[in-house]
Amino acid sequence: MNKELRPGAWPDGKEQTQLVVWAPLANKLTLHPEGSTETTALQPAEQGYWTLTTNRLQAGSRYKLSVDDGQPFPDPASRYQPEGVHGPSQVVQLEGFNWQDHNWQNLPLEDYIIYELHTGTFSEEGNFAGIAAKLPYLKSLGINAIEIMPVAQFPGGRNWGYDGVFPYAVQNTYGGPEGLQQLVQACHDAGIAVILDVVYNHMGPEGNYLGIYGPYFTEKYKTPWGNALNFDDAYCDGVRDYFVENALMWFRDFHIDALRLDAVHAIKDFSAVHLLQQIKQATDVLMAETGRTHFLIVELDLNDTRFINPQEKGGYGMDAQWVDEFHHALRITAGGETTGYYSDFNGIEHLAKAYRDAYVYDGQYSPHRNKKFGIPALDNPGKQFIVFSQNHDQVGNRMLGERTSTLHSVELQKLLAAAVLFSPYLPMLFMGEEWSEPNPFLYFVSHTDAELAEAVRKGRKAEFAAFHAQGEAPDPVDANTFQQSKLQWQLLEKTPHKTMLAYYQGLIQLRKTHPVLRSTVRKGLSVAGDKERNCLVLFRTNGQDALVCLMNFSQQAQSFKLPGEQAQYQKIF
Amino acid sequence: MNKELRPGAWPDGKEQTQLVVWAPLANKLTLHPEGSTETTALQPAEQGYWTLTTNRLQAGSRYKLSVDDGQPFPDPASRYQPEGVHGPSQVVQLEGFNWQDHNWQNLPLEDYIIYELHTGTFSEEGNFAGIAAKLPYLKSLGINAIEIMPVAQFPGGRNWGYDGVFPYAVQNTYGGPEGLQQLVQACHDAGIAVILDVVYNHMGPEGNYLGIYGPYFTEKYKTPWGNALNFDDAYCDGVRDYFVENALMWFRDFHIDALRLDAVHAIKDFSAVHLLQQIKQATDVLMAETGRTHFLIVELDLNDTRFINPQEKGGYGMDAQWVDEFHHALRITAGGETTGYYSDFNGIEHLAKAYRDAYVYDGQYSPHRNKKFGIPALDNPGKQFIVFSQNHDQVGNRMLGERTSTLHSVELQKLLAAAVLFSPYLPMLFMGEEWSEPNPFLYFVSHTDAELAEAVRKGRKAEFAAFHAQGEAPDPVDANTFQQSKLQWQLLEKTPHKTMLAYYQGLIQLRKTHPVLRSTVRKGLSVAGDKERNCLVLFRTNGQDALVCLMNFSQQAQSFKLPGEQAQYQKIF
Fold it and tell me: Which residues 300-319 of A have a C-beta within 8 angstroms of B?
């Protein structure tokens, strides 16, 4: 898009600020600087944008905007909401940050070993500085990429991040935009890449003022969270550019290495150029300009390679996707519950298929979905698939938020970790799993709107009504629910947590150094599932070296016959 | 799909009929043969189907079905509704027809010269026999493919066809299934291919009993005609198979050469395999089995080559699509109104772009749509685009249904015809344009539901409220409105109709025989639009022969400077 019309407040570092707001149906758009009763009108520009170059705003100034003389509200492209979602927006000079990561180069995607974390509960401090303080620890663990759950401004101070309503503003309670810039700087200093989770499929329910400014939403499609964002209806260009520019902002102004785009199956877009493709094209242009590399990773629940195929093959060009199916098959194999979406998975056979084909459902009838589902992903390299034995959703969407630590034996936890790290896919850990953190990761919010808070509370109770035998769903609004979800770093000194950490360190080290394990080439992989004994034999070779991984998910010791001559094998782990 | 589960009644030609009905949520499905109070239960089979092999039905038997002991209704896959949409279904042995077209071979797509017709108003008889009687005339005109507007059973006897509610049943008042088979036979005898218009994006409002049998509809998407057909929600497999098998039925049992799929942009499907792709794959299998060739042509309002690109390029593999934009640009150039969707078109420059690029909007901002629209179609051959100077929609969606015959001079009508036939795209005529038929083609229905009829009547009036200066919108329910829309064959004897027909005959003959004009290769085409003089110079060459087409849309005589040496040119038309 026209660079002059990128939404937001752009201070020039001296005296003036250029304000750009998209409001295609407005007749009047007015700036309300904080602490002044004098307002200033913006001028209509092309494509539904309004602009104003003013010396009434500088970096640090706070302001609101009004449409057609209505009540003033924050800027939809606010870079900072120092007083939360309902307060004024603050001008920030993002490019003023003193970057020292000129020597940083993003890692090759196939080398990523990802660690998903939630800023509020990862550290005692619950902010970016708290993460930065733990970087030496993360480095010693061996991971080389952190994935930060969404940081776009949400209501209150406690939220997973999926209720964000200001995609351009970094959560004030986490440390705001400069706090995130400092964290990325520190990560790059430590040789760690940063993946940021962004939500382009819906807006949270509180503090969502977008509709006041323009047709950000459409009634054409329904999503689980209400009307869909308008990506292909009239006036969609401004909405599309709003998110495309948002993606570019993280790369350009925050040096984020990769985005994890939340639930892209809920981005309803029948345009000739899909929003994701447009983001990919814009990212390619930016990368050519800066010489830096950025990846686009999607959470995708469609088993449709169109999203991850290159554009020349008719795809949207995403670099990689999450594969929940590997998780589901793995957890069923480990003896987990078989209700809900787990009911589609039969354990060891589906786990074997996940190793072999990435997608478990690639055309078969899915009983849970009541339809045939997916297409084969045979030509996509392993580095396009991200796998895990738990993540924020799989833990937090349980009524009691239990991690595998409280569901499975230490030995089984170790097996789950190995199953992930020995796969030809990109492994991802969820914060604390490496020391078998016993605290849950619960669902929590801190809506300041009392009615909404009560609705969320009731909704959560209703969702788990069938599980009342297992206890009550913890109150998501209660600050204790958040507090209980924090990691207990002091456990690291104790057994069995210490031992588990050492195990993970060894496992990750092996993944990073073994010539077969470090590769995400899928060729040379074969797998045999033994349903009766609940065991799986994973064989991988790169033509030169070979490796057999014996996974015993049963409760008994099992003996295996190795392929070929036994004598040639050497136990490495 | 499993051939044993293809929906409908399948008489074995002897004593028994196999009945297959999809009703995945039913607990009981019951056959009600006409003239008997004794019912018979169907048996549940796999995938939500119910089956029954019975000697209570033979070819010619009439029946209804009831779900869970409710009121009996016709079969959703009825092959014939002899008493209309609310009456019983009748068993038909489609494969019993005595085909004599073994030597028929479909024409190459690039040779198609299409003639769109509406069965009810094309001939005085208003049925398939009426069309068959005119085949010698159509042959003498020079067209080689007729495109029949939808014939799926609709309420009453007067309808464009887009209110059909039994996709498998051929309209009783047109001659039913055997009437259509006889017409196709006669066409093939005459060397004419048959394209059938089918509607897979919605169902008509009256006699639509599908919802009683299963989740044919979804609330996920909205269409202009209410809830969308369920192509990607739970239980969609049965709905998808219902339409895929429908497409195959026309090819297999009616020897239809090509389908024209109505408004496929309204088929909302985010599955990994799009419905159209599934139809293409099934058609490929059928073609391999029978050795016959069938084309899939779509009406598409998205300017998205994904629909017409081959599957190996990530496309849906459709053979061709309608291009309304060529029509809009042409009509504006000819001096037509610039309201509504026409407002996006500027005349000669856009017409030049349509000749050059097929899509006028291939990424530009469209003021009428209030968004950027389309992608370039540079790599798609000309035979993938169907163009026209009028069609049933462009005529009939005008309040007074005027053809160009009553809007433009004879000379301009001739120019419009040449503009279409000299393009590198597949030309299509709308019935009667070749003799400048003055009768309108109006919007008409004959709903038997009085309330619905009144609603349509009011809706039509409201739609054209702004045009009251031009008169009243004719009453769509009035039989006279239908009657007024019939072609007047007697005019063919008179001037200027006779002259116009001779002109069209000459033009079509030239299109079919000139080495440059008969080609749909887009390479070698160049075009220059002269906005000031409202003229267009179209230059086409195949490397050997070359041709210049001078189009003067202005009211004055104009002189042209031909490219190269004037002397080398020879006037051919």
Answer: 302-306, 309, 313-315
